[in-house]
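Data card: per-record layout.
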Amino acid sequence: MRILIIEDDAVIAANLYDFLEAHGHAVDAAADGVTGLHLAISQTFDVIVLDLGLPGMDGLTLARKLREEAQLDTPILMLSARDTLDDKLEGFSRGADDYLVKPFSLKEVEARLISMNRRSIGRTAPRLLEAGTLSLNPRTMAVRFGANEVKLPPKCLRILELLIQEPGRVISRDEIERLVWGESQETSDTLRSHLHTLRRALTAAGGYDPVETLHGIGYRLRTTTDS
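The structure for this 227-residue chain is written out next.
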């Protein structure tokens, strides 16, 4: 599953991230409501883990915006220390699919996420992202270039997903770093090394590098071999 964790407690977020990733899930995380909202809208996730007490935008407001304004139906598991019936009912009224009170078992979190995902499969089929002969399946994160399958590490997949959502649009280095790593990187080496890995894999599979660098501006995905 592709899982988004929106949690401001660094220890809880790290424990969830490490546990879920170790169990084979692709995980992204945000430490505040505004970043979490942006990630949830701009990328495709199977499920969202949402804390209620977030800085910038609380979890109830975020859930309402996802449901009412963004019209997003991604299953949401709400996390909170509030355990009254009224608290739970309010969470459900704002769009939560499930509600878990802290402290919780990591195994139970995963079990509930798997259950929510199973219920949601088939309601809507995610659109295959394509740019020329390059494609990415948002649900399985499978990448093909021409007739060949492309194997990529998780961060490279995230970069490609950003680029292929809007082929031809220039995305700045800062935007890529914030959406992939959650914050701007101190040096350009981190993004540069991941782009090198991505480009090498795509060139090997498709015969050319579709990622174009616009120096001082950002990056975009080309759909043909033309410069």
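Known properties of this structure: The radius of gyration is 18 Å. The chain has a mean pLDDT of 87.

See the next section for split statistics.
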